[in-house]
């Protein structure tokens, strides 16, 4: 079997939301790199007793990848844990590229993202026929900035379900922009440290998003889901409609 370094999404916090694949990898790894600011210790506790656990919050890309390469070349099983799903705001690609240059094989194992858990807590379906069939996952610009073609204004024009990551510090301008397109009473799910022991979610209205964020002193680890599909009367779908024939219910 080809040896690889696995990049693993471990979900937003609750260990019960790990995939079985992620759990097996954690249980058998010799060296575990983990984003300690966003992953609870409970998840790391599934690891082997003598395994080496390396917190990445204070390390640079160069440091992380040089230790990874060193341990891998010593014959160790190396894994890298990212919160949520690695494909979202994970800074994963830059790590994969360095490892590729060293001819080290890699794999990415998906995880549950924060927006999915916040939606599930409110039993929200974010794609309801005739209301919206689209979910936009985005963020306020901040220090990273946004490509010009993806300004919140342009995205909000769709009036779809819209999830804001990494945006609590920029909620004033985000709310102002969103209110140009969505009605003030549009429902917003706010989730803070969703699925952690001290986490919570709340259902508010768009017009109160800034006030609520300031009152709760939200700065980080907060997800917002703005959606016209939350708390609406859903038209029934075609999928389970007796008059609608499809491959699995044709006759
Ligand atoms: C660096 S990004 C990583 C996102 C992650 N890859 C994912 O799929 O959820 C961190 C941001 O994700 C969101 N986030 C991650 N975990 C969260 C949680 N447990 N509760 C609320 N928001 C969370 C917040 O917006 C946070 O600022």
UniProtKB/TrEMBL annotation:
Ranges where the Tetrapyrrole methylase domain occurs: 4-198
MF terms in GO: precorrin-4 C11-methyltransferase activity
Gene3D superfamilies attached to this UniProt entry: Cobalt-precorrin-4 Transmethylase, Domain 1, Methyltransferase, Cobalt-precorrin-4 Transmethylase, Domain 2
InterPro entries registered for this protein in UniProt: 4pyrrol_Mease (IPR000878), 4pyrrol_Methylase_sf (IPR035996), 4pyrrole_Mease_sub1 (IPR014777), 4pyrrole_Mease_sub2 (IPR014776), Cbl_synth_CobM/CibF (IPR006362), Siro_Cobalamin_biosynth (IPR050161)
Coiled-coil region(s): none
Keywords: Cobalamin biosynthesis, Methyltransferase, S-adenosyl-L-methionine, Transferase
EC number: 2.1.1.133
Biological process terms in GO annotation: cobalamin biosynthetic process; methylation
Protein family membership: Belongs to the precorrin methyltransferase family.
Record protein name field: PUTATIVE PRECORRIN-4 C11-METHYLTRANSFERASE
Gene label: cobM
